[in-house]
Each structure stands twice: as C-alpha cells, then as structure tokens.
C-alpha cells in the first residue's frame, strides 16, 4: 500500500516536473510575443548582410528580419557589436538571436542552433583590380591575406594555406571593412571572405577590387544563430517556420537577387556541414 502510494507520488511529481519544464520551455517565445519585440544581435560591418549606408543600418538581414517580424507579429530591435563579442553576448542573454550570419560548421552546431541557410558561404579571394600576380586562389602562397577575426573564413584560409608550397601570411581583422581599407591601400595582397560578401564589395567599388575565381575550400552555407537549450527551442522553431514560409513563397529569393544579384539554391536545413 505504501509502495503504491510512493509510486503514485513519484508519477505525480514527474508529471508536475514535466509540466513545469514544458511551461518554462515556452517562456522565451512567450516573452518575445509579450514584449512585442525580437532582439537581434549582429555586427554592422558585413556587407551586404549588415552594414551602415549613409548612416542607416541596411542589408539583406535587415530586410529578411523585417519579414520574420511580420510572420511572428513582433518588431525587430537591433543590437550592434563587434563580431568577436556576438556569441558571448548571445549566451549572456543580451538578445534573442544572432543575424550575423555565421557559417554553419560542425563545431558551432555542437553549441548553437542554426536557422535554415540564407546563402552560400564558400570562401574566395578579393584582390586589387589589375593585380596580375594573383589569377587563381593558389597564387596567394607567401602573400599577406586579410581575414576576419573569429570567423569560419579564418579557419578555411589556414586550412588552404597548409596545402600551399609557401604558407600565407594571415592577418586577422576585427571587422572586414578594415581589411578592405588595407587592401585598397596596398598594405595586404588580398582578403579572404565568402563569395557573396566579396562579390558585393567588388560590385560597389569597380576599378578598385576584383574577385579571384573560383572559390576554394568546401561548399558551405550561412545561417542565423540561436541558443540550443530547451528554453529557446519554441522561439527558434517559430523563426525556422517563418523563414521556410518566406523561402517557399519566393520572398527569400527576391531578397537574395536584390542584395547578391542572383538567388541561391539552399537546403532547408544543414545537418552535416562540410567542415
């Protein structure tokens, strides 16, 4: 009799615990809905995704999160900070999700949850226009190449450098805009970044920069980032659903054409990144 009572008590406690966890898990999405605001962290020096133009925050991320906000029924509040501070600030609860975007990698997926991809992130080289010493990616051997600090492009550049007869002199920058300035001034020979980024920069500064084709390394994708815990799962589920709807009805492709000049064929999810 006592055993039955104890068993019933344990079952009841487990039920109550499960209900409490379920209610807690819904808190993040409920809090965003209640506040009417989704806080989004990003850096504003990563054109064409996020950058400042004539004093205004603009880019693909701004347009895309405007659509996500419509789907969720909330306003978007932007929080700008240097890229190397984005992930610590996300974990400290300074905002709900990161726009970035970030390259989807195995290491990052162990700690964070990614949304559906928004574009390709395969790496390529930007050089000064008219530089005949670099006509293919392998020509950066022994040269000084800029790359963003704490980026997936940094890892890819180092991996590629190791395959060359003379290693690349890798120079890390807090923001890519600084590396483009050094390239224009002739202080470095090139910048390694994702193809969409440098293609946009080259298109904006014709006669100053050129893209070195083809891209190199493994094919990769950009996604937005959130926390992986149960508290944030309902919010990330809602953002994923909104993005897949935006992709299915053609709004995603329209925004890609607006900012990249072409749309990308991206998967709905990346479960096994190339690196």
From TrEMBL:
SMART domains: PBPb. Residues 37-263 form the Solute-binding protein family 3/N-terminal domain. One of its GO terms (cellular component) is periplasmic space. Residues 1-25 form the signal peptide. Keywords: Signal. The keyword Signal applies. This is Transporter substrate-binding domain-containing protein. It comes from Rhizobium leguminosarum. It is found in: Periplasm. Gene3D superfamilies: Periplasmic binding protein-like II. The keyword Nucleotide-binding does not apply.
